[in-house]
Amino acid sequence: MKKILFTILALSFFETFALAKEVNVFSARHYDSDVQLYQKFTDKTGIKVNIISGKDKALQKRITEEGTDSKADLYITADAGRLGAFASKGMFQNSLTPAIKAAVPSNFRTSKWTGIAKRARIIYYSPERVNANDLNGMTYEDLADSKWKGRIVIRKSNNIYNQSLVASLIKNNGKKATAEWAKGVVANMARDSKGNDRAQILAVAAGEADLAVANTYYLALMLSGKKGAEQQAAAKKVLPFFPNQGDRGTHMNISGGGVLKNAPNPENAKKLLEFLLTKEAQQHIVNNTFEYPMIDGVKPHPLVKQMGLGFKQDLETKVANYGKNQAAALELMLSAKWK
Ligand code: FE
Asked: How far is the CA of 196 from the centre of ligand 1 (A)?
């Protein structure tokens, strides 16, 4: 009898221990390198990381539907607009610890979620067809200037990166001015919006347009050769330009994460977030994803460095605005007949 009781106690102790030693990450980031990173965390802490990866909508649907039964501890995705919209449904709990607050500048986080890496959404141009002088002092606002008529490619209005960019313009210039701006941009498009960010860069390389809007890490990814020799060659035909250097700085976005409201292991999730913001983890992230580090003292990948460092980032416009202004951004793009 004693032996049985002991076994039961030992088992339940083991179970509690096992439960406390894991964290369930629902991730919309699809990088093999993230798996290696989580392994490093496990090696350090003994906390096992279970990764459930999928598309954003599917992951969010599952977390929402499973409610209090959800096993999800940490939701990781790209774009502050996505995190903000999910947060507005009350899906996160306070995710910040003193270490996270100390590591991440306040414009790149809220109390519910934090950035873990940065990206800029910038302009790419053909140095054959665009004189660098024409870009001098150029802003996102200038994309609506009629001198670019028929020369710009940018993806569809349903794309979250565009929604966040436009949301930042609403924050800075107001809805009315941004609605006018969107009409100007649509009038300047070289074609109806289609394709992903890399497709926009490829269009400029192929001579279909002179300017493209796309995130920074895509050019580095193409230059790296990981997307094949053809895209590598195309990437060499365009140059990056960082807008709004004369005023608020270039539009920045994040990939990031937050601890979910019904997380069974919230403390482990916070520990993992803290780990992702250490120098070691940041170096691993930027080496593999070509993003910018969230913390100081970590160097981006050489291909990203080569695109230009020292540019002025927009640190005034809090990324929390992207979720807030998302609906308004989409609405005004659609009104402007932005596909
Ligand atoms: Fe992306």
From this structure: 8
53 and 171 both lie in a single domain? no
For ligand 1, the distance from its centroid to the CA atom of residue 3, given in whole angstroms, is 57
CA of 223 from ligand 1 middle (Å) equals 15
Start-end of H helices in 104-174:
160-173
Hey, is 115 helix, strand or coil?
strand
Tokens coding 47: 């906390």
Residue span of the structural domain in which 215 resides: 121-251+314-335
- Whole-prediction pTM: 0.93
Write the CB contacts of 89 (distance below 8 Å, at least 6 apart in sequence).
Answer: 64
Average pLDDT for consecutive 10-residue bins of the chain (339 residues)? 51 52 93 87 97 95 97 98 98 97 98 98 98 95 98 98 98 98 98 98 98 98 97 98 98 98 98 98 96 96 92 98 98 98
Quick check: is 309 in a domain? no
Q: Token pair of 284, please?
A: 């691993």
**Do residues 178 and 170 touch, judged by C-beta distance below 8 A?**
yes
Q: Look up the CATH number of the domain holding residue 293.
A: 3.40.190.10
